[in-house]
């Protein structure tokens, strides 16, 4: 058996890196990213990259010697490298004629061009009529070679022959439609002749014996059945008599994949069991399907979650692991409900709940009790939780911990090491998916479905129809993240409270639940992002709910009426107009709360002095300003509004003095932070992008957090971000970081979908952007103070750019931009004015 613990060669695990290293060793002048792009363009599949990497590892001189050896991808790589400026690489020459053509054929271990291959084939197989060793133009129905002077054309067009046979079985189909179908299926003349000869030899191929014909015949039968044919019969597998796709050849007949795999049984070199072979090791030893999936060589980084795992779905450039892939929604054939189902494209889709019921608890192989499966022995025997918990020294880390699993040779592994080992992946007892199981032999999805059904279900286990959208929304999130969220009793009690309520789930229903605000906020955001609840501005809604509590602290009805009027007509009316165009920010809501709190404190303080808002004097307000109440100057807006609306008379609060000093950092320190973000060692993509936008474009974190994906545009190789009225070109590596954020889109949401949102920086709440406070915490942890860093960046930009350019590119107001240019000492405007005066003076003379 092959050693599964042996370290695999790098040309299998990192083929692109190996190829790039070999090329850069020969062509050190080339840019690494250009070489990487060239490798990706000529070897788009993993198999081709591995083949090319293995060939270059064994013989790097294939790129410079000009020898006609190695795979075809070597020639393609040389051509791609020459287009980017490579000078040492040499195209191979044909082993026969010595010309630099495309060498697609092999003559032993040497490569030859297509012309030499045709000459070789003609010499080996001359024309059956004249014996000439010329180019083989075609072959007859017996497979014999024919030159161009003696083609086996027959007396009739092959399409007409096929149409005649179809008409004899299916006379109702129009002949023109059948002919068009034949030409669509068989576009080459050789395929049309092959199909006509097969029907001539056996006309019963159209009525059930199609397994004895060519593959094009089965495709023709499927196309004719799609056009309404009734007498033509799609063949069954001749080995198992099932209606399956016949895509393989076995003993001269077309067979389904299951039968084809059944007759390809060999002894697996990894597990030693006789199973169908899925792949082979580097030294050619066979591997079965489970060992192939468990082999870390075949694991790739998931484009959604980033973890290296077995890829279960490929959608163009997207590679999805089993955790990130979501089953499509269909009508379950068992329960009849519309839910995420397995086999959604087949005749019998099955939801996760019904799949879970098909796998009952099993008998433990040690204690013989019927319990849920917690562990399994190497031979697949089930173990319950009690029998599987054993404390042994871990084979990997050496610590004595509860045994979580065993390695390929039976050695004990603890939980921490087992979770990282590829052998931890098992088939779920319900859905059969191969991944790290959560509990009781269930994968994350099946375990999540069981918990949600128990929390949202009634006494009989059924879920009322009003909660079905909530269940579907929760299932669209990451199962493991949601399972971790449900470990806390607060979310479980929240879902149980929803199950006991009546009617549909609405914003009002969630507002009335007596549960922690954070859990309700996360659930509400997920439901709103999924469309279960209508979208609303949560900052405005929270402010409206908080206002009655804040005003209710006032004992006097007249004071409550004045403060409520100030909050409603001055703040809420303005905020509602803003919310119609864009969501309110946390800063806007905090400012309003502080001013309302200041109004409540001022009115309360005046009542404690024996006066009121209507009878207070300026002396009272001056004493208020001399107090140590932290909100004393924040009450100015309320007092001005009260005087304007005649709730107070001839009193005012002056504008508080502002500190004119500007806090900045050293320019060298700023560029040191920039270099740190450019290198990106240990810093996540979102933090790097936000930090570079702050240090290069002086974007405040409140605006950075609300950048939308549609603000990012591409024109050729240029990546632009619209921060103001004109788009701004992003320098590398900021352009790559922004594009990576656009492609990721998954965010950090625990509940529901997290990729259907417009934000470049998604937050933890579904469909919501990251908060500026969270960005500030991340930058502060790296030793960066946002405001001083932004002041330094703005000062540097204002000294180099005119105010109008600064305004258009960065989104600053023109007045603000002019103040910054003056603060930076820029004389561009003064110089233009002086130049204009000089020109006018010269013209007057």
Describe this structure in words.
By secondary structure, the chain is mainly α. It is 45% helix and 11% strand. The chain contains 35 helices and 29 strands. The protein has a 3-stranded antiparallel beta sheet with strand order 7-8-9. Helix 2 packs across helix 4 and helix 22 packs parallel to helix 24. The radius of gyration is 37 Å and the shape is globular. The N and C termini lie far apart (101 Å).
Percent of residues in beta strands: 5-15%
> First CA to last CA: what distance?
101 Å
Give the overall pLDDT as a whole number. 82
Q: How many strand units?
A: 29
Shape: globular
Q: Report the helical percentage.
A: 40-55%
Q: Biggest β-sheet: count, sense, barrel?
A: 3 strands, antiparallel
- Enumerate the spans where pLDDT stays under 50 for 5 or more consecutive residues: none
Instruction: Provide the gyration radius in Å.
Output: 37 Å
Quaternary state of this entry equals single chain
Number of helices, counting only DSSP H or I runs of 4 residues or more: 35
Protein structure class: mainly alpha
The main sheet orders its strands as 7-8-9
Question: What keyword list fits this structure?
Answer:
29 strands; 845 residues; 3-stranded antiparallel sheet; mainly alpha; 35 helices
Helix and strand arrangement:
Elements: H1 10-13, H2 15-26, H3 32-42, H4 46-58, H5 72-83, E1 105-107, E2 110-112, H6 114-124, E3 138-139, E4 145-146, H7 158-169, H8 175-185, H9 189-201, H10 215-226, E5 248-250, E6 253-255, H11 257-262, E7 265-267, E8 274-280, E9 286-288, H12 289-294, E10 300-301, E11 308-309, E12 311-315, E13 318-321, E14 329-331, E15 338-342, E16 350-351, H13 352-357, E17 362-363, E18 370-371, E19 375-376, E20 382-383, H14 385-388, E21 390-393, E22 400-403, E23 405-406, E24 412-413, H15 415-420, E25 425-427, E26 434-436, H16 444-456, H17 468-475, H18 479-486, H19 489-500, H20 507-512, H21 517-529, H22 538-551, H23 557-579, H24 586-608, H25 618-626, H26 636-644, H27 667-679, H28 685-697, H29 701-704, E27 712-715, E28 718-722, E29 727-729, H30 734-744, H31 772-781, H32 786-800, H33 803-810, H34 814-823, H35 828-844
Antiparallel strand pairs: 1-2, 3-4, 5-6, 7-8, 8-9, 10-11, 12-13, 14-15, 15-16, 17-18, 19-20, 21-22, 23-24, 25-26, 27-28, 28-29
